[in-house]
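Request: Could I get any protein with tokenized structure?
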Amino acid sequence: GKFLLKGIPDLFLPEISIEEDFSVYLKYRKCRACQLITNGGAVVAKVQIRCNKRQVEEIETELNSYYENQTNSKNQNLLPSEEAKLKDGWDLSFFDSRGAPVIAHYLKNNFGAHIIKTKEIITYNRTKNKNVTRTVFSVRLPEYLIGDIILYEDRPFQIVQISTINTKIYDFTNKFIDSKPNEVILTLNITNMYSRGQLTKFQIISIDHKGNSVQLMNLSTFDYEEVSLDSFKYEIKEGLEIAGFYWNDELFIDQLPPLKK
């Protein structure tokens, strides 16, 4: 939008007009006062989100999108009453127990998160002679992102897909895609080698279909490399910029199509 400011700084000077642009940024949350009135102020559920530092910005965007969609759908009761941002995630508190599992499974479906559901004692009800508890969802996101190069069992792999249940990884040594349950992936001794943005950039100089080879130029050193045409799982052409990485003096090609500029 724009705002227009008019004024006379001095009686002997003409009127001055200033016009400036401004932006409005909306943050969708349920009013805490409304929560206290409608729910009595008791935090009955929590969601503890923990993620890789590289994911913080992406997860924050997803959370805001989720809040906006729930608000527009008039499901404000599913929004957290409090949101504490941490270095490695968020702690969300809910006055309505229905909101916590919805957002926990939203992150599982979109990021392959692993969920652990536990109970936390709030207080003891002497009248009913039992503990009063709240539900806590521990939501742990993988340490990797799609496109990451990881080292597992002394072999390089690439994360090529993350779904609700499984993570698909490309084995560069044996040249095939393996699928593992997300819960299993989280327990593996994996070392992150490169994020996709850290891969070396190359340009395709020529393609020899008969010889089944592709000539590349390293855009950092301007050295030439030759790889097998079978290294590419997507359509290529001369002049295309692609990515790769070196491991044990061998060049491996990014298995995902180049990002559109």
Remarks:
- Residues 56-72 form the longest helix (17 residues).
- The mean pLDDT is 85.
- The radius of gyration is 26 Å.
- DSSP finds four helices and 17 strands in the chain.
